[in-house]
Design goal:
Rossmann fold, 2 domains, 6-stranded parallel beta sheet, alpha/beta
Length: about 375
């Protein structure tokens, strides 16, 4: 009972803090309405301190790497800070530029102390990489109070003193949309490489190994176990594949073991247990092909040049799918629970043919 009261009290405190920050943000917005937009491109020193807000998911952090790289090219002597969340902090040692890592933990007292320290450091530029409106990003932006704050022109645009256009979300890939954030630095987003890049990831490709991802960020994206079993069986009928490695979250281990037993084939193996995202990425990198309903694996395939069959539930027509960039792929857009294994196998065959014929389909982000 006492523990429950404490939790409720902490939650009330968190809500009160959020409301206070939002109120201060609204006040700042009122005064900013009469402020002049800074001249662009920004006139920064050769050693600016640039803070990125990327406190969401692993896939979001991966597709942001082209932005990091371009700014590091322009300011090689700058100091870069990455504010990650607890869900994506595992990417920290894979990032392609040297940067300081700070984790937003959603613990009011610890986060207030962290934000105060950042505010005292007088950040030159804060970049909010979210292309969806985020009250958390607004709160962080207001609390840190960087000299320049840059964000995409969306519902919380008043949080920033510099905004960039929100390009058509139905036409352009998320990687291209957030590349707009480079414009205030004088970098044309249409001229940059949009393919995700990660560093410090070992793992040699094993010819003939296919990675079958059976877990996803949310259960609704996962294929039924019996469908995965039939996919695994069918894949091994292809002369280009001699091993199927099942990748799964620890919570899905029993399901993975069931799939392995159902196939009755020693060429279907469980991926070794990994304890970090780095270890998982290194293991996935060994695959020659991947079949995945999970978007973080999609972006790892882009980074590691792995052809992939991507399975996605239908999105609203106003959103562009999170497809791989720079590698051949096949996209299946269908309600997951109605997907037939034969459809997946057909798309895998098409993908293998593309690779054999060197057809670089959908290599761009538009």
């Amino acid at each position: 009972m006492r523990e429950l009261r404490i939790k409720k009290a902490v939650k009330r405190l968190e809500i009160a803090i959020r409301r206070a920050f939002i109120a201060s943000l609204q006040l700042r917005s009122h005064f900013r309405s009469g402020m002049k937009i800074p001249p662009l491109p920004l006139d920064l020193s050769s050693t600016p301190t640039i803070l990125f807000l990327r406190q969401d998911k692993l896939g979001d952090a991966i597709i942001s790497t082209p932005v990091f790289i371009e700014l590091y090219k322009k300011y090689p002597n700058g100091h870069f800070i990455m504010l990650l969340g607890e869900k994506n902090q595992g990417i920290a040692d894979l990032l392609p530029i040297p940067c300081e890592i700070i984790v937003y933990r959603k613990k009011p007292l610890a986060d207030i102390a962290m934000l105060r320290k950042l505010r005292k450091r007088k950040i030159d530029v804060l970049i909010d990489l979210m292309d969806n409106p985020s009250s958390t990003s607004s709160i962080l932006t207001a609390a840190i109070s960087a000299k320049y704050s840059i964000g995409i022109n969306k519902e919380n645009a008043s949080s920033y003193n510099i905004t960039v256009p929100l390009v058509d979300r139905s036409k352009y890939h998320i990687a291209r949309r957030i590349a707009e954030l480079l414009r205030p630095f004088g970098i044309d987003p249409d001229t940059i490489e949009l393919r995700a890049r990660l560093h410090n990831v070992s793992g040699e490709k094993v010819i003939g190994r296919l990675g079958l991802i059976i877990s996803a960020g949310v259960p609704e994206r996962q294929l039924l176990p019996e469908i995965n079993s039939e996919i695994a069986k069918g894949v091994l009928q292809n002369p280009n594949i001699n091993q199927v490695m099942l990748f799964f979250h620890p919570k899905d281990r029993k399901e993975a073991e069931s799939i392995q037993r159902e196939t009755g084939n020693s060429q279907v193996v469980l991926a070794p247990l990994t304890h970090t995202f780095h270890e998982y990425a290194s293991l996935l990198k060994t695959c020659e092909y991947v079949i995945t309903p999970d978007t973080s694996a999609v972006h790892l395939c882009s980074a590691f040049n792995i052809p992939a069959v991507v399975i996605a539930s239908p999105f609203p027509p106003t959103l562009h799918y999170w497809t791989p960039i720079g590698v051949p792929y096949e996209m299946i857009t269908q309600e997951i629970r109605t997907l037939n294994y034969a459809t997946v196998l057909d798309h895998l065959q098409l993908l293998i043919q593309k690779v054999a014929l060197n057809i670089p389909e959908a290599m761009t982000a538009a």
